[in-house]
Design brief:
32% helix, single chain, 28% strand, 6 helices, Maf protein, 7-stranded mixed β-sheet, alpha+beta, two-stranded antiparallel ribbon, 9 strands
Amino acid sequence: MMSKKLLFGTTNRAKLDYVKTVIQPLPIDIVSLNDLKIDILVEENGVNPGENALIKSRAYYLASHIPTFSFDSGLYLEKFPEEKQPGLLVRRINGKQASDAEMLDYYIKELKKVGGQSQARWITSVALVESDNRFFIRNFTEHTLFTSQKSPIMNPGNPLNSIQIDPVFNKYTSEITPEERKQTKGELDAQIFRFFDDYINGSLRMGK
């Protein structure tokens, strides 16, 4: 089967490498915004991850005219009070976009306030825009454990991986190697793989 070329609407190298690892060995050739030198500002004003993912995918599809997918996520920690829930604003702290170091510092401090750890879930959406009037959306849930004890390994661009324990691998998310992901897919890995497999096989339902 000939490979399908898809644009991943991200400039985050860690996320690009992650998705490429997870979808192996599907016949998909993923390119990034950096590869195509696309540099446009997209206002993510959706009310949920699905809307934000679709906003990004549509904008980058119009810029590239290549089938385009994007992700967006919301984070919810069981022990955090409602006013502290990150939701869609995982990286926005005290009214501004936080750096990797600022994110880690903030979440570690908040976790210590609630006993040092908390069960949590990520609500992640992927939106794939294939043409002007054809798109697909799927929502995923990933369960994880957050801890105030930081791994010495950090993934630039995905700093929270170093304070999350993946329940499938029973280790810090930042310490899971590409080889391990190829052999044993985690909860989110399996859901992402299934989405792209369904897309290649033509079994996705259009729209939401």
